[in-house]
Amino acid sequence: MRFKRLGELFESYHHQLYLTAMAITKSRELAEDAVHEALIAVSESSTEPKNLKACVFTAVRNKAVKLLIYRNKHMALSDFIEPFEELSEETVVMKSVFKLLDELDGTQQQVIIMKTLGDMTFQEIADCLDKSINTVSSSYRRGIERIQEKIND
């Protein structure tokens, strides 16, 4: 049953999981590895998680941090999008968003990605990051405010 739910969750959130890992690792390869390793770890777990989505996002985050420490890679989040001769409007927008996210601290990046792309509640994010819900909501608010300031400049 968990494998089916895990597969459905991956189908629905694979892009968000990948972006969560990208926000941490700044590397396409490390992000892919983090997502794959996290899915394997969750599937092999002997206990059934209460909240599978939060558990998977937590596993992705933890694997991404471990891979980053192990390989010590540093790329800009905006480098996630391949350079194209003709950039689509969507690609230009995503590149701009990633550049803005790059200017935030790691926690703000993760919270904004988990909230907006991962469709997670502040409580789920707090559980995932092992922080209080107040800290998570403050990080989200401060990150959004910094992005708005940069847009208005």
Description:
- Helix content is 75%, strand content 0%.
- The chain is an all-alpha fold and 153 residues long.
- Helix 1 runs antiparallel to helix 2.
- The mean pLDDT is 81.
Instruction: List how many beta strands DSSP finds.
Output: 0
Q: How many domains would you count in the coordinates?
A: 1
Silhouette: globular
Based on secondary structure, the structural category is mainly alpha
CATH homologous superfamily label: PhyR, sigma-like (SL) domain
- CATH topology term: Butyryl-CoA Dehydrogenase, subunit A, domain 3
Q: Regarding CATH, which class? A: Mainly Alpha
Strand content: under 5%
User: What helical percentage do the residues reach?
Assistant: over 70%
Order of helices and strands: HHHHHHH
For the record, the CATH architecture stands as Up-down Bundle
- Which whole number gives the mean pLDDT? 81
Largest sheet: none
Cα end-to-end separation:
50 Å
The stretches of 5 or more residues where confidence is low (pLDDT under 50) are: none
Rounded Rg: 16 Å
The count of helical stretches stands at: 7
